[in-house]
Design a protein that fits this description.
By secondary structure, the chain is an alpha/beta fold. The protein is 37% helix and 16% strand. The strands form 2 sheets. The protein has a 7-stranded mixed beta sheet, with helices on both faces. A hairpin with a 5-residue loop joins strand 1 and strand 2. Helix 7 runs antiparallel to helix 8. The radius of gyration is 21 Å and the shape is globular.
Length: 367
């Protein structure tokens, strides 16, 4: 993220990166914007070569949908909440656009491995990089055999010991976090899946040269997460979201309800995410809409989800609207089940045209 400082009456411009703002002016970008007056104005500018991208892959990650989702970012909002953090694609997109400047962001998830990994990247980055470098070197020489050795001989036993000690995200060991990133970067499609015994059982992915340790990206993410305005913690989605007040923005990206039996993916945590959880999520969204919180939900177009939103008059009365957008699905046990599908967006925010328009052929609005 950079800032353009432009003199109002002249054509001169000076581009200043955020590090320079702190170094030269001893001000954060937000304070710099507040204190510059008179002949100067500040224009946030998105610099694609400096964007910070998620450091984890995640099933159902939203990077491909950011142009459509971006149409429903409110022009102004207060605090930001993301109760199903995953890869954090929307959070990083908002940050890259300068939309979180001067705002607090609360990033939560019920997956303690996920939150624990974020916390270690924030607080113990050098140790993470050191361990990842070793994992990457061994993977380069041993490939899939090494993946299964790490998964079964090291990660799952270490995870079992951590769970026996209480298993909180705050106590997630650095070694587990490094292995979590390694397994995420080399496993099948960024899945995090636990079997009934609580063991991580995702198979190895088919990657010729996976990028396991991206030092620049990790450092950038760590700096962002270290911001005192960013809160990261393990919490149920309803607890985090219900803290939102009028004018705040909450983005929900729950584990998707399956379109078919073969597409089912519910083992996101040891407790899964059931149809009952989907119904409870709907009640939370309705409560937030009633409080005039800006809400944005993405989900599958499974029949149970459509019944909760598209076919629900209470949702319409709450000022929520539904739109279907095209997306690519990569996770299915059958090849014919992959490809372009429709996903559902539910929001009380009016769309803006500043990003790519939603496909008219797949747009739906409740009337």
């Amino acid at each position: 993220m950079t800032t353009v400082v432009r003199r109002k009456l002249r054509a001169k411009e000076r581009v200043i990166d955020n590090d320079s703002l702190v170094r030269e002016y001893r001000l954060t970008p937000a304070k710099f914007r507040d204190q510059v007056q008179g002949d100067y104005t500040i224009f946030p500018v998105r610099r694609f070569d400096q964007d910070t991208r998620p450091f984890l892959k995640w099933a159902g990650g939203k990077r491909q949908l950011l142009p459509q989702l971006g149409r429903f970012y409110p022009e102004t909002f207060g605090r930001y909440f993301e109760p199903f953090l995953g890869s954090g694609a929307v959070f990083f997109d908002l940050f890259n656009q300068g939309r979180l400047t001067g705002k607090t962001a609360t990033l939560t998830d019920e997956n303690s491995d996920l939150i624990g990994t974020y916390l270690r990247v924030r607080d113990s980055l050098e140790a993470i990089i050191e361990r990842l470098t070793i994992l990457a070197r061994q993977h380069a020489s041993r490939g899939r055999d090494y993946y299964y050795e790490i998964r079964d001989t090291w990660f799952n036993p270490a995870r079992r010991e951590w769970r026996a000690r209480g298993g909180g995200a705050d106590s997630y060991p650095v070694d587990l976090a490094a292995m979590m990133i390694y397994l995420n970067r080399t496993g099948y499609n960024g899945l995090f899946r636990l079997n009934q015994a609580g063991k991580f059982n995702v198979p190895a992915g088919r990657y010729s040269a996976p990028r396991i340790v991206d030092v620049g990206r990790l450092r950038s993410v760590s700096r962002i997460l270290s911001d005192c305005a960013v809160e990261i913690r393990e919490a149920p989605f309803d607890e985090a979201a219900m803290r939102a007040e009028r004018g705040d923005l909450v983005y929900f990206d729950p584990p998707y309800a399956p379109l078919s039996r073969t597409a089912s993916f519910r083992s996101y945590t040891s407790n899964g995410f059931s149809d009952e959880n989907q119904r409870h999520l709907q009640t939370v969204i309705l409560a937030l809409a009633a409080r005039e919180v800006s809400v944005l939900l993405s989900n599958s177009t499974a029949p149970c989800v459509l019944a909760l939103y598209e076919s629900n008059r209470e949702v319409t009365r709450a000022g929520l609207r539904c739109r279907r957008i095209p997306a690519r699905r990569a996770i299915n046990s059958r090849a014919e089940g992959r490809g372009v599908v429709e996903e559902l967006l539910v929001t009380n925010v009016k769309p803006t045209p500043r990003n790519h328009e939603t496909h008219e052929s797949t747009k739906r609005t409740i009337k």
